[in-house]
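Tokens in:
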């Protein structure tokens, strides 16, 4: 007899009800809906490892600054397309303090979350030079970014970095860049979903190739300073998080408030563009948009403004206040977010004690750290099979296959784990192992 929490029949019924075409290839949103519906029907709680939504309270400094901004009356006026001056200046200071990179306030542009940053940057990057119209993904990565390219009709290339760490990355990237049609290179660091971290040697390779082949590197810093193996996050003090900005001027950094300040609900980020790229003139942009053709100005006025018409003014003041507080040492966002590493360590132990293995388990020189995400495999189960089997035991995740990974397994997120769920998870994973004996 199996020890499942939810019967296969009930799960199939819910999948059919929600019109999920293929559970083994379900998106994050579809998995979330299935898990929520099963909870609703049965009252049995899920171990929610699907959506990467913050699991900590929103930062109070941001909340109070946003309230104060609204009380000052900022809600009655449209914010400037380029962003409020206070946030642009705060972002410039923050990048200097925590990354040791000089970017002028003008080139720090508020966006409604990093999703808007990447959408705008994809458009500008793939339109700036005729013939350079593809995007290269260093996967695994964030599936939504490929969905954005579908919307604008841009093609992409991709490869799973699993077998191409260290110096092996150079030859693999040149396979694509040497064709001359790659406009942008995208990755997250730390990585969503694998939590691997690109090391300085690898970022140097990416930067050198981006310069040689004139590709814009889009570095997603959603999990900023959350490589907890090193004591980062002290303003103006090394070690600083590794960044491609040390090795090329062809970069944009996407810096979100969602995870580091748990301010996800207010949809706020900044895209920090190298001053050289920000001020570069591209005839193709000038011709298309009838504007200056300057990369940064076109991105702001002719692209981002058409998508969101600017960002909520009060939230810009909130983000500015949090960034300034971090620079001044009044917020220790690394200490706040370290809770995710503690959760990951406990969750990983429960899984590995019951026959699971960590899929992306090593960086170039050291084991992968604990943080917001980790990856799990089990025996010979495929990604989709493992996702489905875990659902029967009340654990939701997403299949690695949906992230551009060629490895078999699932992504687990730590953000929604609660203290009372650890014994529940342990009981369910013991049952899972009983029902799935390993050879």
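Residues out:
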């Amino acid at each position: 007899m199996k020890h499942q929490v939810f019967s296969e029949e009930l799960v199939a019924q819910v999948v059919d009800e929600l019109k999920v075409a293929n559970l083994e290839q379900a998106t994050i949103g579809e998995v979330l809906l299935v898990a929520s519906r099963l909870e609703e029907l049965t009252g049995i709680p899920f171990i929610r490892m699907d959506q990467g939504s913050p699991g900590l309270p929103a930062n109070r400094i941001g909340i109070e600054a946003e309230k104060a901004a609204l009380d000052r009356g900022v809600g009655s006026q449209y914010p400037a397309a380029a962003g409020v001056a206070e946030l642009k200046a705060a972002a410039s200071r923050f990048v200097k303090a925590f990354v040791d990179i000089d970017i002028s306030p003008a080139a720090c542009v508020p966006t409604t979350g990093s999703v808007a940053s990447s959408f705008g940057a994809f458009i500008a990057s793939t339109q700036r030079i005729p013939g350079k119209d593809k995007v290269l993904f260093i996967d695994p990565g964030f599936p939504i970014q490929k969905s954005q390219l579908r919307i604008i009709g841009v093609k992409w290339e991709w490869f799973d970095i699993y077998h191409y760490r260290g110096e092996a990355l150079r030859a693999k990237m040149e396979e694509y860049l040497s064709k001359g049609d790659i406009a942008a290179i995208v990755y997250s660091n730390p990585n969503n979903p694998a939590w691997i971290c690109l090391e300085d040697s690898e970022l140097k390779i990416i930067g050198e190739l981006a310069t040689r082949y004139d590709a814009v590197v889009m570095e997603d810093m959603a999990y900023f300073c959350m490589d907890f193996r090193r004591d980062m996050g002290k303003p103006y003090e090394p070690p600083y998080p590794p960044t491609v900005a040390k090795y090329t001027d062809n970069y944009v950094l996407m810096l979100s408030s969602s995870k580091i300040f748990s301010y996800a609900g207010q949809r706020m980020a900044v895209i920090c563009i190298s001053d050289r790229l920000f001020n570069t003139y591209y005839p193709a942009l000038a011709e298309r948009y009838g504007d200056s053709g300057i990369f940064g100005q076109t991105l702001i006025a002719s692209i981002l403004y058409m998508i969101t018409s600017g960002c909520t003014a009060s939230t810009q003041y909130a983000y500015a206040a949090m960034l300034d507080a971090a620079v001044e040492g009044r917020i220790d966002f690394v200490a706040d977010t370290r809770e995710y590493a503690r959760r990951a360590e406990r969750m990983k132990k429960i899984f590995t004690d019951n026959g699971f293995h960590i899929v992306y388990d090593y960086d170039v020189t050291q084991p992968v750290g604990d943080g917001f995400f980790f990856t799990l495999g089990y025996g010979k189960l495929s990604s989709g099979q493992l996702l489905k089997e875990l659902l029967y035991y009340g654990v939701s995740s997403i299949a690695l296959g949906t992230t551009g990974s060629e490895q078999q397994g699932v992504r687990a997120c730590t953000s929604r784990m609660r203290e009372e769920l650890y014994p529940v998870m342990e009981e369910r994973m013991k049952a899972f192992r009983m029902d799935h004996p390993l050879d």
